[in-house]
Amino acid sequence: GDIYTFGEGSHGQLGSGTRTKSIRSSYVADFTGKSLKRSVLEKGKIIKFTDVFAGGYWTMARAEDGRIFV
Questions:
Q1: Which segments within the chain are labelled E, that is strand?
Q2: Residue 10: per-residue pLDDT
Q3: Is the pTM higher than 0.85?
């Protein structure tokens, strides 16, 4: 799936590569316009995520096996 961000971004917390506010949701992409992909490895295996949740000071992701990462 896709991840979109919006809100206060003065410390780079929106993942857009800038340090500005965004009142409209924007696709999380790198400077070339390609989507950001980050692999999470555990014991040499890639963990796949099904959901991402975020708040003012936190981010959580749910893995396919149901585990939660904060």
A1: 4-7, 22-27, 40-42, 45-47, 49-54, 59-63, 68-69
A2: 77
A3: no
